[in-house]
């Protein structure tokens, strides 16, 4: 009989925790996972999946407008926020049930309580019960950062945006990252007057500058207002429930809601790390080695709580690698090089590899190819919006260092192209490929 209650105890049933749990169980381990909210984690419950559905829903405003140029007459079209909201939340329920079934089908014990660490091999549940495990995996993810300033109690985060009772007529969104720009596009598409407020002078830090500039230009054309170098001073609530936002060096903004999307922080408060001698880094993340092991030999951590790369597919790979290493006898690590990313703004951005600035700093001798074009659909719909594709290569080898795109369906197109970049192919390999015409994707093999 084992000296422990479980071979593996996982804290957090998000993408990384679920993958680690079911793979470890498939190797014969006795596994339990504790989740205080809902199985599925940020991505499924309050992140990328429901947000992408809102992106689809909001884009129909443009689709219906463009349809007229394609011969369609659509009378009486109207939008009902409650229908979209409830359908999205219904799909979240479906996914929550699917993830739960996956764990049950793999004989993983699900404990619907908060768990904290009380020793290197022991956890304590909110009910007071203590459980022992040979290994503990921390997969608690991250949460939205909420700053402290007068009136901060009136703000919303991305978590609450999926549950709005009604669609606001006006919205202020704080932040310049992907979450801010995605929700700005969603609300703007649904008819809300949106103002993005950023304390710095640019959006989407880390993405290629040409794509950032193009999105800013298009977003402003669509009616989204931007205020840069504008830190918050305070928010005051009126008797009717609306808000007055006071910014440094700016006129006050009267709005219905204020959403903060100013980053995410590892969810480590009250986790009991000190009972296992684990210290967090300067950003509050849990330091781990290449095999996701913490400073305590029996405790590992994967996903956003480690702040390596905060992406769902990365957390899944880390969970898989952990289970393969610890329970499968196959030491595995995750390759963080050339990870494709996307911003589901309107239009969307997709990127893999080095930006032009990063490539110049690292390699010096580079060459930039680009295609600045108007998608056929936009031409026919009399929409001026243009796409932009960029390819950065090392010279004289021609090896592709980065590929960056903004335009309709860019994330769908980039996923396949990212394989070529990851494989180290050259510009010549793209030149040698016959174009698939007529398509936007053909611009990838026609860049000059």
Give an account of the 3D structure.
The protein has 448 residues and is an alpha/beta fold. It has helices at residues 15-26, 41-46, 48-67, 81-105, 158-161, 178-189, 209-221, 312-326, 356-363, 376-380, 410-422, 427-431; strands spanning 6-11, 31-34, 109-111, 115-119, 122-125, 130-138, 142-144, 170-174, 193-197, 225-227, 232-237, 243-247, 253-255, 257-260, 264-266, 299-301, 341-343, 349-353, 366-373, 387-394, 400-406. A hairpin with a 2-residue loop joins strand 4 and strand 5 (122-125). Helix 1 runs parallel beside helix 8. The protein is globular and about 70 Å long. The model has no long low-confidence stretch (mean pLDDT 96).
Task: Summarize the entry for a quick read.
By secondary structure, this protein is of the alpha/beta class. Helix content is 31%, strand content 23%.
Sketch the major β-sheet.
7 strands, mixed
Average per-residue pLDDT, rounded, comes to 96
Number of strands: 21
Low-confidence stretches: none
Shape: globular
Question: Helical residue percent?
Answer: 25-40%
For the termini, the CA-CA separation is 67 Å
The radius of gyration computed from the alpha-carbon positions, rounded to a whole number of angstroms, is: 24 Å
**Beta-strand percentage?**
15-25%
Structural class: alpha/beta
Instruction: Tally the helices.
Output: 12
Brief descriptors of the model:
single chain, 448 residues, alpha/beta, seven-stranded mixed β-sheet, five-stranded antiparallel β-sheet, 21 strands, 23% strand, globular
């Amino acid at each position: 009989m084992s000296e422990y209650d479980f071979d593996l105890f996982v804290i957090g049933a998000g993408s990384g925790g679920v993958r680690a749990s079911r793979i470890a169980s498939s190797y014969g381990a006795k596994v339990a996972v504790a989740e205080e909210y809902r199985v599925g984690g940020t991505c499924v419950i309050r992140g990328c999946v429901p947000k992408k559905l809102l992106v689809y829903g909001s884009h129909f405003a443009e689709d219906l407008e463009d349809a007229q140029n394609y011969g369609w007459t659509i009378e009486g079209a109207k939008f009902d926020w409650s229908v979209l909201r409830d359908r999205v939340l219904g799909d979240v329920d479906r996914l929550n049930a699917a993830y739960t079934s996956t764990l049950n089908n793999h004989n993983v014990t699900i404990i619907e309580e908060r768990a904290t660490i009380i020793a290197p091999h022991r956890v304590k549940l909110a009910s007071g019960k203590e459980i022992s495990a040979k290994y503990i995996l921390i997969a608690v993810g991250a949460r939205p950062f909420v700053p402290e300033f007068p009136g901060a109690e009136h703000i919303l985060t991305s978590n609450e945006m999926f549950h709005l009772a009604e669609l606001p007529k006006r919205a202020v969104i704080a932040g310049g990252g992907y979450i801010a720009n995605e929700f700005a596009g969603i609300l703007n598409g649904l008819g809300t007057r949106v103002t993005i407020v950023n304390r710095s002078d640019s959006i989407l830090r880390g993405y290629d500058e040409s794509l950032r500039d193009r999105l800013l230009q298009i977003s402003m054309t669509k009616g989204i207002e931007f205020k840069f170098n504008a830190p918050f001073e305070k928010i005051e609530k009126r008797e009717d429930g609306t808000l007055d936002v006071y910014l440094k060096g700016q006129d006050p903004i009267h709005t219905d809601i204020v959403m903060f999307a100013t980053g995410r922080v590892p969810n480590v408060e009250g986790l009991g790390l000190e009972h296992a001698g684990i210290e967090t880094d300067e950003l509050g993340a849990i330091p781990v080695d290449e095999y996701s092991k913490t400073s305590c030999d029996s405790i590992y951590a994967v996903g956003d709580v480690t702040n390596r790369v905060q992406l769902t597919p990365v957390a899944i790979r880390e969970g898989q690698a952990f289970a393969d290493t610890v329970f499968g006898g196959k030491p595995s690590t995750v390759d963080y090089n050339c990870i494709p990313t996307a911003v589901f703004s309107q239009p969307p951005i997709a990127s893999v590899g080095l930006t032009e600035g990063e490539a110049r700093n690292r390699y010096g001798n580079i060459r930039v190819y680009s295609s600045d074009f108007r998608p056929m659909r936009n031409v026919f719909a009399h929409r001026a919006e243009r796409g932009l594709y960029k390819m950065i290569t090392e010279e004289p080898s021609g090896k592709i260092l980065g590929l960056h795109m903004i335009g309709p369906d860019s994330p769908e197109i980039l996923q396949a192209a990212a394989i070529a970049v990851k494989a180290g192919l050259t510009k010549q390999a793209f030149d040698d490929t016959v174009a698939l015409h007529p398509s936007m994707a053909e611009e990838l093999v026609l860049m000059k």
